[in-house]
Specification:
alpha+beta; five-stranded antiparallel sheet; 167 residues
Length: 167
């Protein structure tokens, strides 16, 4: 039977370093995703409540390729929307999202800022509220895991210090 040998000090340091890096990565992903989605919510609420609602028209699409899960490539489409401000000046909105199909319709709702009509967002439930909410919820997963691991190590550290009579 093989005799148990405790891990070396260097091994413990490597494990703690890896765990700390993993925890910080998870917390960064969670905080970054939460910040992004809450910032989107704030901008959307501001433009919907203080901006001007107008009709827009999808005039073209920007095409790019995205890699699939199976290793293949799929063509993605990002709509380019034209709209007019209060002074009847034309503006173009390049969407910050894309899909694998083109929209079935060309007419869309656009909200733009009164002072700077070039600041605009596409209206609609999916674009204004649903996707930022989904990103927020998904960012809570790595944040919760990171906080759980961080709490575990902090509790372990205090338990070790209490056992040594330091605290």
């Amino acid at each position: 039977m093989k005799k148990f040998t405790p891990p070396k000090q260097e091994d413990g340091c490597l494990i703690v370093s890896f765990s700390l890096l993993f925890t910080l990565l998870l917390l960064g992903m969670g905080v970054g995703g939460a910040y992004y989605s809450l910032d989107k919510f704030q901008k959307h609420i501001n433009l919907v409540s203080n901006g001007i609602k107008t009709d827009g028209l999808i005039t073209s699409y920007e095409e790019h390729w995205s890699k699939d899960d199976d290793g293949g490539y799929r063509k993605m489409y990002s709509p380019v929307i034209s709209y007019y401000d209060s002074s009847n000046k034309s503006h173009t909105l390049y969407s910050d999202y894309s899909s694998s199909t083109r929209a079935w319709f060309r007419d869309v709702t656009v909200y733009f800022d009164k002072e700077d009509p070039s600041k605009a967002i596409r209206g609609g439930f999916w674009h204004l509220w649903f996707w930022p909410f989904v990103i927020f919820c998904l960012s809570m997963i790595p944040m919760a895991i990171g906080l759980f691991v961080l709490k575990y190590y902090v509790d372990l550290l205090f338990k070790k210090n209490n056992n040594n009579g330091i605290i």
